[in-house]
Structure of Zinc metalloprotease:
Amino acid sequence: MTIIAAIILFGVLIFIHELGHFLFAKKAGVTIHEFSIGMGPKLFSVERGGTKYSVRLLPLGGYVSMEGEDEESKDPNSFGKKTILQRASILIAGPFFNIILAILLLVPVYMSLGIPSNENVLGKVIENTPAYEVGLKANDKVIEINGQKITTWEDIVENIHKSDGDEINLKVSRDNDTKDIKIKPQKNEQGKYVIGIAPIYEKNILTSVKYAFVSTVDMSKQMFMFVGQLITGTVPGGAGNAVAGPIGVIGIVSNAARVGIVNLLHIAAVISLNLGILNLLPIPALDGGRLLFLGIEAIRGGKKLDPNKEATINLIGFALLMALMIFVTFKDITRLF
């Protein structure tokens, strides 16, 4: 069942991506030959209004086949006959829909889990940690750290982290009494100093929406940093261990599905955002590569590049992406064994 959940998830993310292209192409009046979910042999298709809607065997992608997208066409409703702005909007729409989907998926996640409150009050003290050992308790209010006044949870985190592992002095308020506590932070797996405390979590729709936007922006920054590390070869542990292909992602989704719907929604949001961000990269065959060609066309005053040359470059880019996919899939399989 978890593998079925992973395939359905892939299908939804691909559908949303291609739906963005499809709707904006329709809005611009582009002739669309086929809207396909999946690649390879056709499993099912139906034709409506001159457009064929298909489901294909391999859930690894999809496409919207538009007149004049990869070749010269005299059809006034072809992709190539539309303005630069119209063509750019069609290309951006797919990744944009994936980014919006990521935000929408994160809202119920944060509604379920709650959002960390920025109050300087402890929501939880984790067992077998420095905070637990020195007697800190839930609902303790941190007033000072090393003599510095504390008013927010960020103040607590920042002061603990910058301790560099040295003992710190906490002044906390508990039951209308003030206590001075000495504690020595420990370094966690992410390399940050912690003492084993957690904030109070709030469950609020407006806060969840805001946090979904903020979280999406933060994850996007991390993804761009990761791409930079891939390019420079500075990925911790090596690129081969940091990148997952279809098999690896299905494994991740399957594990998330076993844990529960909230975890599955979070993983779906991350994958959707990945799909949106990666498609915006200026790589031939991806939406970002086509946007790059449009930018060059705009710089040249509207003078188009040779469609055949552009198609050849995109074909080479597609071949390289497929080679990368095979390599990553091979790495996925070797990790299984």
